[in-house]
TrEMBL record:
Keywords: Disulfide bond, FAD, Flavoprotein, Oxidoreductase. Its cofactor is FAD. It comes from Chlorella variabilis (Green alga). One of its GO terms (molecular function) is flavin adenine dinucleotide binding. It catalyses: 2 R'C(R)SH + O2 = R'C(R)S-S(R)CR' + H2O2. InterPro entries: ALR/ERV (IPR039799), ERV/ALR_sulphydryl_oxid_sf (IPR036774), ERV/ALR_sulphydryl_oxidase (IPR017905). Its EC number is 1.8.3.2. FAD-dependent sulfhydryl oxidase that catalyzes disulfide bond formation. Oxidizes thioredoxin in vitro. Required for the import and folding of small cysteine-containing proteins in the mitochondrial intermembrane space, and can act independently of the oxidoreductase MIA40. Can oxidize the cytochrome c oxidase assembly protein COX19, a typical substrate of MIA40. It is an enzyme of class 1 (oxidoreductase). Residues 86-186 form the ERV/ALR sulfhydryl oxidase domain. GO terms for cellular component: mitochondrion. This is Sulfhydryl oxidase.
């Protein structure tokens, strides 16, 4: 080394002293590595603790057949009126059938087409053979033969339906209904929706054929 020159102060292992920013960077890296290690240990600890408090799976409980039948009755809206095993009584079927028929008559067009008149007569004829209760179907066949359905208008069909219902009620020993009030008792369906070309979507005038 030439005379008069001084060597730089030696750092660790004989290397020159590190610049301040390098020292700071090295310390920051060590701190980050330590933080990462601590975070990993914390995550493992939390996972173990959560596993210890995880609730055990509950075994499936089989529902008895009777409970299934009761649930089905509740879904159908029968309110428990159905007989055991899901069967329904003749009275329940009768009430549902008359509600359908009176509502159909209330929805029947004021001026039905020829096709609609045929459909109404055919439906009454089908019920004399395909009603769920055979004895009831036979009685209804006698009613239809004695007084064929009046299908010329809504008023005529509604009145005929009411009189047919009264005939059945008298056979069953039940009181008759005042047919002058039939339109007030069964006023049809209010859909609240507009069908094609205006009017109610529930109207039988929609898509009718002559």
């Amino acid at each position: 080394m030439p005379a008069g020159e001084r060597s730089a102060p030696a750092g660790p292992r004989g290397s020159p002293a590190a610049e301040p920013w390098r020292v700071a960077l090295s310390g920051l890296q060590r701190n980050c590595q330590a933080f990462g290690s601590n975070l990993s240990r914390l995550q493992r600890t939390v996972a173990v603790q959560l596993g210890q408090f995880r609730p055990a799976a509950q075994p499936a409980v089989a529902m008895p057949v009777a409970s299934l039948s009761q649930a089905a009755a509740g879904w159908s809206g029968s309110g428990g009126g159905a007989a055991a095993g899901g069967a329904v009584s003749r009275e329940e079927v009768g009430r549902a059938a008359w509600t359908f028929l009176h509502t159909l008559a209330a929805q029947y067009p004021e001026k039905p087409s020829r096709q609609q008149q045929r459909d109404a007569r055919n439906l009454m004829d089908i019920l004399t053979r395909m009603y769920p209760c055979g004895e009831c179907a036979r009685h209804f066949r006698e009613v239809v033969r004695a007084s064929p359905p009046a299908v010329d208008s809504r008023a005529a069909f509604s009145l005929w339906m009411c009189e047919a219902h009264n005939t059945v009620n008298r056979q069953l020993g039940k009181p008759a209904f005042n047919c002058a009030l039939v339109e007030a008792r069964w006023a049809g369906i209010e859909c609240g929706e507009e069908g094609e070309g205006g009017g109610s979507a529930c109207s039988l005038e929609v898509g009718r054929r002559r």
